[in-house]
Amino acid sequence: MPDQDDEVPAWQRKTEGESRIGATLAVLTIVGVQVAPLKALRQQPVWLLPALEILLLAGLVVANPYRLNREEPWLRRGGLLLTGLLSLATAIAAGRLVFELTHESIDNPAELLASGGAVWLTNVVVFGLWYWEFDRGGPAARAHARKPLPDFLFVQMQSPELAEKEWEPQFFDYLYLSFTNATAFSPTDVMPMSRWAKAMMMVQSAISLVLVILVIARAINILQPVS
Question: pTM score, two decimals?
Answer without folding.
Answer: 0.91
